[in-house]
Amino acid sequence: MSIKVLGTGFYVPPRAVTNDELSQMVDTSDEWIMQRVGIRERRVSVDETTADMATKAAKNALVSAGIEASELDLIVVGTISSDTACPTVAGMVQRAIGAKCPAFDISSACSGFMFALETAAAYVARGNVKNVLVIGAERLSKLLDWKDRSTCIIFGDGAGAAVVTKGEGYLASTMYTQGSDEVLFIPDVVGSSPFYERTEKPRFVYMDGQETFKFAVGRIARDVKEVAQKAGITLDRINHVVTHQANIRIIEFASKKLKIPMEKFFVNIEKYGNTSAASVPIALAELHASGKLKRGDIVALCAFGGGLSSAACIIKW
Ligand code: UT7
Question: What pTM was computed for the model?
Answer without folding.
Answer: 0.96
